[in-house]
Write a structure and sequence with these properties.
Number of strands: 17
Oligomer: single chain
Shape: globular
Number of helices: 19
């Protein structure tokens, strides 16, 4: 964890959010990376796809007619970013006469869509890094090598690059980071109130005002309580299956009992029963966790009353612990079954280069993962980027990236808060319920 945080700190302003929807202007970006791709058949690979790079396109003097299908989130279409990048890439690569097929697929849905039919999936797609193990396991994503790998490892912090790797092999290009932090309403809470959950919940508020909003986000935000208290799944980095899961020990019971009290507190709103935006619009919610992708929504609602900070500490057993949110990235991947591998890898590398990370920030508020791009004055002056850097440095843990975790955790962890709310988990049976969780995770 120390190595992880040190690496992030060295990356300074590189750490980012995900899909913000800003509408700032920007110029067309130009790629400084070589074009084309080549297969490195001698590279050992888990998914039986060749390690692809962008270092050797053939030049016969004629343009090859090709089609490239691209999957990206709605904001990349609405802001015109993808169209601008495609036109710039085509202008730099006269060896290709490209027919573009651009389809909207959110990063959170990419894995599901790709695995339905890899052969029919996009040549290039944007996805969340926690999906990488499943994509690799299915042989659906190309391993990257050569000039593409060199670009990624020389321009992006090591801790960030790690989110795009499986078994020491690179499979994607990180372009922005994926974590959450705390928003708060300055008319309800001030800077002295937001340092701990205890202070947030103790704040005197009007009868119809909730002090805190609990959302597990399918287990994504739930993990911050258990990891914050020093618990883990499959070891500190999530890759040691033999280490098992320790959420059912004495500390895990204390954390779960804390959540039982928190979720059942009348001053805590519960996800699914009422929306954050509805509460914020009426100044009826003190603090909640979310990412930069909803910044514009909350800023439009609260204006200057919107506050941002790292997630707070909590005290489940007489000790103060810093909550630790999962940290990942958003990445660019290439379909292992692409019929135009050379062009697909070249375009993926183009999307992930420094200039295009700057363009993406200018037009959709996604803070660059590229180190140099993240050091721009605009990024350094951005309060949203500032809180994301602080969150990553002080209140995050690398999200486990293995297929066993991914196929089990989201299902079983998501049941914990739901069963607390329905009274299926109580302080009388919490030990048994946690034992069942650990068994489900490790069987």
């Amino acid at each position: 964890m120390k190595r992880f945080l040190v690496a992030l700190l060295m990356a300074a302003m590189t750490v980012t959010a995900v899909t913000g929807c800003g509408s700032k202007g920007g110029d067309s970006a130009k790629s400084d990376s070589p074009s084309g791709a080549a297969a490195d058949a001698g590279t050992e690979k888990k998914d039986d796809t060749a390690a692809a790079d962008n270092s050797g396109a053939a030049s016969s003097g004629e343009s090859a007619d090709i089609t490239l299908k691209v999957w990206c989130p709605q904001n990349q279409v609405d802001t015109g970013i993808m169209d601008e990048q495609q036109k710039a890439f085509a202008a730099e690569h006269p060896e290709y006469n490209i027919t573009w097929v651009t389809e909207v697929v959110g990063e959170d849905k990419c894995q599901e869509s790709v695995l339905k039919d890899v052969g029919a999936a996009a040549d290039v797609f944007l996805f969340a890094s926690d999906q990488l193990p499943s994509l690799v396991e299915a042989g659906a994503i190309a391993r990257l090598g050569g000039a593409t790998e060199e670009m990624v490892k020389s321009t992006i912090a090591e801790s960030v690059v790690a989110t795009a790797m499986v078994d020491d092999a690179l499979y994607a290009i990180p372009f922005t980071h994926n974590t959450f932090f705390m928003y708060y309403d300055k008319t309800i809470l001030d800077e002295a109130d937001i340092t701990s959950l205890e202070k947030i919940m103790a704040k005197e508020t009007a009868d119809n005002v909730y002090n805190y909003y609990f959302e597990s986000a399918g287990g994504w935000k739930l993990g911050c309580y258990y990891y914050g208290a020093g618990l883990s799944i499959f070891g500190p980095d999530g890759s040691d299956l033999a280490a098992g899961v320790d959420w059912n020990n004495e500390k895990g019971v204390a954390v779960t009992n804390y959540l039982i009290d928190l979720i059942n507190n009348p001053k805590c709103a519960f996800d699914g029963e009422i929306s954050v935006s509805e509460l914020a619009g009426d100044h009826r919610i003190g603090a909640w966790f979310d990412g930069s992708w909803n910044y514009d929504l909350y800023k439009d609602i609260l204006g200057d009353d919107l506050g941002m900070a790292i997630i707070p500490t909590f005290n489940p057993d007489g000790n103060d612990y810093q909550l630790l949110g999962f940290y990942g990235s958003k990445c660019i991947g290439v379909n292992a079954q692409s019929k135009n591998m050379a062009a697909a890898v070249a375009f993926a590398a183009f999307l992930g280069n420094e200039e295009n990370q700057v363009l993406r920030y200018e037009k959709s508020a996604q803070v660059p993962a590229n180190i140099k791009a993240g050091e721009s004055e605009a990024v350094k002056a951005d309060p949203l980027a500032t809180v994301l850097v602080e969150e990553a440095n002080k209140a995050s843990v690398a999200q486990p990236a293995n297929a066993t975790f991914s196929t089990r955790y989201w299902t079983y962890a998501n049941a914990i808060p739901t069963e607390i709310r329905s009274k299926e988990i109580t302080k009388d049976n919490v030990q048994q319920k946690l034992d069942d969780f650990v068994t489900a995770m490790t069987q």
